Amino acid sequence: MAELTWKGKDAFLNKAHNVQLTSHLSLQTVARHPATQHEEQEAAQCSSEIQWHNRLILGDKNDVLSTLLDEFTASVNLIYIDPPFMTGRVFSSGSSIAYRDTWDNGIDTYLQWLYEAFSLLYLLLSERGSIYVHLDWRTAHYAKLLLDEIFHPALSSGGGFRNEIIWHYQSGGRPHKGYARKHDTLLLYTKSASVCFHGELIGERRGTQKRNNMRKEVGVDGRVSWTIRSAGRLYSYDEDSLMTPSDVWTDIHHLHQRDPERTGYATQKPEALLERIIAASSEKYDLVLDCFCGSGVTPVVAEKLHRRWIACDKSDMSITTTLDRLLVSERSTPFVLQHVVS
Ligand SMILES: C[S@@+](CC[C@H](N)C(=O)[O-])C[C@H]1O[C@@H](n2cnc3c(N)ncnc32)[C@H](O)[C@@H]1O
Q1: Given this model, what pLDDT does residue 142 score?
Q2: What stretch of H or E contains 109?
Q3: Total number of domains in the chain
Q4: Both 236 and 187 in a single domain?
Q5: CA 83–ligand 1 middle distance (angstroms)
Q6: Calpha distance 115→45 (Å, rounded)
Q7: Whose CA is nearest to atom 7 of ligand 1?
Q8: What is the pLDDT of residues 119-133, one digit of tens each?
Q9: Which of the four pLDDT bands, split at 50, 70 and 90, describes residue 11?
């Protein structure tokens, strides 16, 4: 198998379990936040979902993820991560630093860092689980090779690469000397061939606009339907029928400066993006994990869609922003705030 290599590459996956076994770290709960709705009645029912506490964790991803292995090996249904893109920038809000995206030894340091994250996440992902890795032109091509290695179909029963999603947006300027970079890349990998995917829940309306070689027919009531003959069969679709979205997403916009969703946290992604991912690749009460939660978009949307969640970040500002956001939202499940301690 072809494999990406770099200075100091250390095959981490084989070691990841031992990292957890030899780790002296643990998670300490520093606060508990009850649900805002129905907690009393639901607690009385004592179902397993109600006993569950979602978790917001302050800490470095390697420390947090290796600590989580104890309880959650092969248990996470959906992982979304939006790690630093290797921009070389320091991101701030006002005069405070949110996080640094600078890498002392350049690409070698960055790749080992990413590789370790993918290895630990692989161990946490459930057999039917999916991982979405959100990057851009700077490192998406490297990440794909790393993920190919870790999610190799021979290691993971029929799993591996599923989709390369292009999230196209219009924000930002247009240079004169080259094409304007107007997309991020989301790499979707799974651990096995049997995956949770609900294309029907994220469908887009077929509509009245011509898309391909289909024939347009207008009924007596003025309604449009589309027909196509393939392998001797005639397929007909109403304008209101839903199609699974393609791997190019053009209908989700970056948050504009005054968007009410904005928290002030740099590199915040829109809730609509997470709504699509969580609705498509998980089910009610499934466990969703984001170890670079930033402004808290993943836990906020997971909460809204009644998923269980674990979110972590090593930035104090991220955890404060996420906490503030969660505390003003309707919650049907309590959550705890945890820190990594030795
Ligand atoms: C691109 S931002 C995530 C933005 C987030 N998806 C949102 O929509 O708000 C990347 C995040 O990774 C966090 N981060 C960077 N290195 C980390 C590490 N080693 N462990 C945990 N979090 C880290 C940063 O603090 C930052 O919040």
Answers
A1: 98
A2: helix 107-124
A3: 2
A4: no
A5: 5
A6: 42
A7: 268
A8: 999 999 999 999 999
A9: confident
